[in-house]
Every structure is written in C-alpha cells, then in structure tokens.
C-alpha cells in the first residue's frame, strides 16, 4: 500500500455528510497530499475514483461512485477525473461540481457546473495559494 493513513486520522470515514468533497482520479498521479491541503482549506473531505484506490494511493472507504460511496455535497471538486458513469453516480446529487481535467473531451465536463481545461497539477497549487 502506497498511502499513509493520514486522511481522517484513523477515525471512521463518512463522506456522505461532508459539505465539500475534493475527489482525485488517475490524472493526479497519486498526489493526494495536494488534494488533502485543498480539502482542509475548504473544510471538506477527500474522495477518489476507483483506479487510485485500486493502486493503493488512498483508502477504499474514500472511493466515490457506484461501487463506493454516493455523496451529496454542496461542492464537489473533481480533479483529474475522466468522468466514467460509475464515478458520476457518486456525485450526481452535488449542488455544484467543478471539474479540472486537461482533456477537453473528458466526459466529466458533461456533469460539471464549472469546467477548467488545464493540468490539475498546475491549477490546484494555484488554487491553494489563492485560498491561503
């Protein structure tokens, strides 16, 4: 397992009650530290698509979607996520979805209220700096 159990501090993880969800997919290359910082600044929780979970970058309890957790946050920030159907069902009840992906044709953009076509590894640090 590649992740360090720093997310949630060993407490039971409950993504369903968080008003903000910062979710990472294959496009973040396992850099959940960056997403953890963003989530902390937004008073939110971290989630993930299935590939980073299967690769051991983050706990299975944080998997969003059809085979994971279905969430209803006020804000979902989807970082480096393609937007496969089995993930999208996990965030479809979010009030606002922001998607960041460098592929302008990524299906996640069909489900987002705000779309940022850019490299998530460049955008998230800028967003973190702006929030600080």
The class by helix and strand makeup works out as: alpha/beta
Total helical segments: 4
Could you give the order of strands across the largest sheet? 2-1-3-4-5
By oligomeric state, this entry counts as single chain
Q: Could you name the ranges where pLDDT drops below 50 across 5 or more consecutive residues?
A: 1-6
Task: Name the overall outline.
Answer: globular
Helix/strand order: EHEHEHEEH
Report on the biggest sheet.
5 strands, parallel
Rounded mean pLDDT is 91
Instruction: Give the helix proportion (percent range).
Output: 10-25%
Count the beta strands: 5
Give the terminus-to-terminus CA distance. Answer: 31 Å
Percentage of β-strand residues: 15-25%
Radius of gyration from the alpha-carbon trace, in angstroms: 13 Å
List the helices and strands and how they pair.
Blueprint: E1 20-24, H1 32-41, E2 45-48, H2 50-54, E3 75-79, H3 85-88, E4 96-101, E5 114-117, H4 120-131
Parallel strand pairs: 1-2, 1-3, 3-4, 4-5
């Amino acid at each position: 397992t590649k992740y360090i159990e720093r997310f949630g501090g060993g407490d039971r993880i409950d993504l369903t009650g968080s008003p903000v969800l910062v979710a990472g997919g294959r496009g973040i290359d396992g850099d959940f530290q960056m997403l953890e910082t963003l989530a902390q600044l937004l008073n939110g929780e971290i989630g993930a698509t299935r590939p980073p979970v299967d690769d051991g970058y983050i706990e299975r309890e944080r998997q969003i979607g059809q085979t994971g957790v279905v969430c209803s946050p006020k804000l979902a920030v989807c970082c480096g996520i393609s937007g496969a159907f089995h993930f999208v069902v996990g965030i479809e009840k979010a009030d606002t979805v922001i998607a960041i992906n460098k592929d302008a044709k990524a299906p996640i953009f069909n489900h987002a209220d705000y779309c940022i076509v850019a490299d998530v590894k460049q955008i998230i640090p800028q967003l973190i700096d702006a929030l600080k």
